[in-house]
Design a protein that fits this description.
The protein is α/β, with parallel strands linked by helices and 483 residues long. The protein contains 13 helices and 19 strands. Helix 1 (20-42) packs across helix 5 (154-164). The longest helix has 23 residues, at 20-42. It is globular. It starts with 19 loop residues before the first helix and ends with a strand. Bound molecules: S-adenosyl-L-homocysteine, iron/sulfur cluster and FE3-S4 cluster (F3S). Iron/sulfur cluster (SF4) is lined by residues 200, 202-204, 207, 209-210, 244-245, 281.
Length: 483
């Protein structure tokens, strides 16, 4: 994607360049030598598989990792029976960690059959010392371990592994310079995530993200806009601006910029058709942002606004810095200003000390706001966070029973809400052909709901008007209208 990197013109034998992206380009060239030898011996290119376990930011990192691997000469594949498997891990809840250990067991069995296979681990889970310790002791077949701050170094680390023959571990506590000028292999040709900031400073008391992603760092607006322009030139029509708390974007820049200001500039980019973003923290959501969304032609009418709990008492202990009334008032303000908006949320059940009354407050907010959809999570104890040390942890059965009640309510409301546009014509970005039904395609509406309708495969990547004929619970069946 980025022309300034050209491993073909890089001298493989000379000294190491000081500038970081040139240095990495140098290692890509060296790894290419290895890939070339591999091809000569095996009469095929080496294969690589990058497996993503986490959020959109994790997925975007996987695209960067895939870009580097592609440049080295790997053929990328979905399945894990590859010459190099890289697990890009997540540690936000314990089940994410357990999934990784499960997959490591599986991939170990593949490695027994193909001892030359390389296995790498990276991402958020690797920023935890206890995890590294466990892998060193019980998963010694792993070849490569790195964290969240140095993914751009993949080629250098791989080269080190190839030449040293032993496990390479490189974890940084904090992010240094942001290196963005490396190749990226996008999963979709027509849409892309764009990082606008890294890390998080909020320290919600249950959350491990600030510890594994480091302090909040915003990218400069010119760089972000330049990246979007470049993506548009390559055929992207929809971007998703990514950050843990996009509403605090720009506050720590030399020349501070607001998130709403950045959105206005992105809106002006010709050829860009849709803008999404996530995640918004309720405490920082400005009136300016609501106004910009209301006036915009391109910003999708969708706001993901994590509630976490409806109890003001619990919200305080969670360190969320808003209370029930403020959240309700904000949701109302948004729905009044932008009636078509889809409001979605995240909710945690079973936070330490949560009483039946606290939980009822959450149910009450869900009934009042009527979220278009909601992700519900059982509280998961994360070592090192303040909430993990709290004594009044909730028994699993109690939390599970509440979770089931909440899920039932959320789903019932979501079903009612998702049918509200039946009969209308809305635009959809066609994302894929329908795998189960020939002659059908699947599109995503601005409000993030999917619609299935008859259409040709050539429509993929296009934004088209679709009449929503029938709601099927969480998606629509539709018909394309004349453009
Ligand atoms: N930055 C985003 C959230 C990132 S993590 C925000 O502040 O909204 C995504 C979601 O995972 C969170 O919204 C929260 O609902 C959930 N989550 C985070 N830590 C958790 C934990 N320890 N247990 C259960 N759910 C958790
Ligand atoms: Fe975690 Fe809170 Fe930061 Fe979101 S805002 S990533 S929940 S600490
Ligand atoms: Fe998981 Fe890291 Fe994202 S912990 S949710 S992958 S920031």
């Amino acid at each position: 994607m980025y022309n300034e990197i050209n491993p073909d013109q890089t001298d493989r034998t000379g000294g190491l360049p000081k500038e970081e992206s040139s240095r990495q380009s140098h290692f890509i060239a060296r790894c290419r030598g290895w890939a070339g030898d591999f091809e000569k011996t095996h009469h095929r290119r080496p294969t690589a598989s990058v497996q993503t376990f986490g959020c959109q930011m994790n997925a975007r990192d996987s695209e960067k990792l895939s870009g580097i691997l592609e440049q080295i000469g790997f053929e990328l594949k979905e399945e894990e029976d590859a010459d190099l498997v890289l697990y890009n891990t997540c540690t936000v809840r314990d089940n994410a960690n357990q999934r990784v250990y499960g997959r490591l067991g599986y991939v170990h069995s593949l490695k027994k059959k193909n001892p030359a296979m390389l296995i790498g681990l990276c991402g958020c889970m690797m920023q935890e010392e206890s995890v590294i310790e466990k892998i060193r002791q019980s998963y010694r077949f792993v070849d490569l371990i790195f964290g969240t701050h140095n993914i751009y170094k993949l080629a250098e680390l791989l080269y080190e592994r190839l030449t040293s023959g032993s496990m390479v571990v490189d974890i940084w506590k904090e992010g240094r310079d942001i290196v963005e000028t490396l190749p990226t292999e996008r999963k979709y040709p027509y849409k892309s995530g764009v990082n606008i900031m890294y890390g998080c400073n909020n320290f919600c008391s249950y959350c491990i993200v600030p510890y594994v992603r480091g302090r909040e760092r915003s990218r400069r607006p010119e760089e972000i806009l330049e990246e979007i322009r470049r993506l548009v030139d390559e055929g992207v029509v929809e971007v998703m601006l990514l950050g843990q708390n996009v509403n605090s974007y720009g506050k720590n820049l030399e020349t501070p910029v607001s998130f709403a200001g950045l959105l206005k500039e992105a809106e002006a980019i010709e050829g860009l058709k849709r803008i999404r973003f996530m995640t918004s923290h309720p405490k920082d959501l400005s009136d300016e942002l609501i106004q910009v969304m209301k006036d915009s032609e391109k910003i999708c009418p969708h706001l993901h606004l994590p509630l976490q709990s409806g109890s003001s008492r619990i919200l305080k202990i969670m360190n969320r810095r808003y209370d029930k009334e403020q959240y309700l008032a904000l949701a109302k303000k948004i729905r009044t200003a932008i009636p078509d908006i889809s409001l979605t949320t995240d909710i945690i059940v079973g936070f330490p000390g949560e009483t039946e009354e606290d939980f009822e407050e959450t149910m009450d907010v869900v009934r009042q706001v009527r979220f278009d959809s909601a992700f519900t999570f059982l509280y998961s104890k994360r070592t090192g966070t303040p909430a993990a040390a709290m004594e009044n942890q909730i028994p699993k059965e109690v939390a599970q029973a509440r979770f089931d009640r909440l899920l039932a309510l959320v789903q019932q409301i979501s079903k009612e809400m998702s049918g509200r546009d039946t009969g209308r014509v809305l635009t959809a970005l066609v994302e894929e052909t329908d795998r189960q039904h020939e002659g059908m395609v699947t599109g995503r509406l601005g409000n993030n709901i999917m619609v299935h309708f008859p259409g040709a495969p050539e429509l993929v990547g296009q934004i088209v008007p679709v009449r929503l004929l029938e709601s099927r619970g969480f998606y629509y069946m539709g018909r394309m209208e004349e453009q």
